[in-house]
Design a protein that fits this description.
With about 90 residues, the chain is mostly helical. Helices cover about 60% and strands about 0% of the residues. It is built from 3 helices and no strands. It is elongated, with a radius of gyration of 19 Å. About 0% of the residues are buried.
Length: about 90
């Protein structure tokens, strides 16, 4: 095993854009998505001593969505400007 190889293989799931909100929320709590997911799984399967992770203030999610919408609008505007110049 190489030194940079993780101990467990990655798993794939489909979530959608809320994945980015989840990332912002986890970072607001000083953690990462994977750690929160592991906690949720342990709680869900009733591992002894497992507890639900703390949740962030709703403002972290709202701010993340607003920032993502702003970036998307700016990108669309840049794309539209480039298309108009190409005409």
């Amino acid at each position: 095993m190489s030194p940079n190889q993780p101990k467990t293989p990655p798993r794939q799931i489909r979530i959608g854009d809320t994945w980015y909100d989840f990332d912002a929320a986890a970072k607001a709590m000083g953690t990462e998505r994977a750690a929160v997911i592991r906690q949720l799984i342990d709680w869900y399967i009733r591992e002894p001593g497992a507890k639900l992770p703390d949740r962030p203030d709703r403002g972290a999610v709202v701010a993340a969505r607003e920032a993502r919408a702003k970036r998307a609008a700016e990108e669309a505007a840049r794309k539209g400007d480039a298309e108009r110049r190409a005409e």
